[in-house]
Design goal:
Low-confidence stretches: 7-21
Number of strands: 8
Number of helices: 7
Distance between the termini: 34 Å
Structural class: alpha+beta
Order of helices and strands: HEHEHEHEEEHEEHH
Mean pLDDT: 92
CATH superfamily: Peptide methionine sulphoxide reductase MsrA
CATH architecture: 2-Layer Sandwich
CATH topology: Peptide Methionine Sulfoxide Reductase, Chain A
Strand order of the largest sheet: 7-6-1-3-2-8
Number of domains: 1
Shape: globular
Radius of gyration: 16 Å
Strand content: 15-25%
């Protein structure tokens, strides 16, 4: 066990006695056995994992991430939606985050590991924390064959890890495009650190990132 993993396990033990009404329980997910080979200086990945405020907020503090944008993915191509429409739960879209990152600093596999360790519970179907509906499902939207291969392999790896009691329900879905959310939903955690939702559900995820992945934690969020 690496020293950083040992520190993370101590953190998880302390957090296990915390209130179950807070953020999803952090779990130190395994190092991916298969990673995506990058093809450009900057890469893009799209993740859905419940309310996009927390997903964006955590990824924006990962070293190597240049930009994290809240929006919507998974619905019909070329169909225009907004937060209110997606919140009705029948569009096929999920609240998602588009992450632009430098693969020389952080790989797609490491982003996957962070995602499943501190952001999302991969065993909850169509909900995360207090948010229920298909728009809050957890999903990976690969943008190329390398990401698809790595994502599918990692979901199998998570299922075989025994770290979660229930089956893995996160799915790899076809990417049909990404639509940015409105400006008032961008950088929400950074702009509203005392918001009750952020304090209860998302701030603990950022705390877990710092404790479990100190080598990848950036105190200053990306733009």
């Amino acid at each position: 066990m690496r020293r950083s993993d040992g520190i993370a396990l101590v953190f998880l033990a302390a957090l296990a006695v915390a209130s179950p009404l807070r953020a999803e329980r952090p779990v130190l997910a395994p190092v991916p056995t298969i990673d995506a080979t990058p093809s450009s200086r900057l890469e893009t990945a799209v993740f859905a994992g419940g309310c996009y405020w927390g997903v964006e907020g955590v990824f924006s503090h990962v070293k190597g991430v240049h930009l994290a944008v809240s929006g919507f993915a998974g619905g019909p191509r070329n169909r225009k939606v907004d937060y209110e429409r997606v919140s009705e739960g029948d569009t096929g879209f999920a609240e998602s985050v588009r992450v632009t990152y430098d693969p020389e600093q952080v790989s797609y596999g490491t982003l996957l590991r962070i995602f499943f360790s501190v952001i999302v519970d991969p065993t909850t179907l169509n909900y995360q924390g207090p948010d229920h509906g298909t728009q809050y499902r957890s999903a990976l939207f690969p943008l190329n064959a390398e990401q698809e291969k790595a994502g599918k392999a990692y979901l199998i790896q998570l299922g075989q890890s025994g770290l979660w009691q229930g089956p893995i329900v996160t799915r790899v879905e076809r990417f049909t495009g990404f639509q940015d959310a409105a400006a008032d939903h961008q950088n929400f955690m950074t702009r509203n650190p005392r918001h009750p939702y952020i304090l209860r559900w998302d701030a603990p995820k950022l705390t877990a990132l710092k404790a479990m992945f100190p080598a990848f934690y950036s105190e200053k969020p990306s733009a």
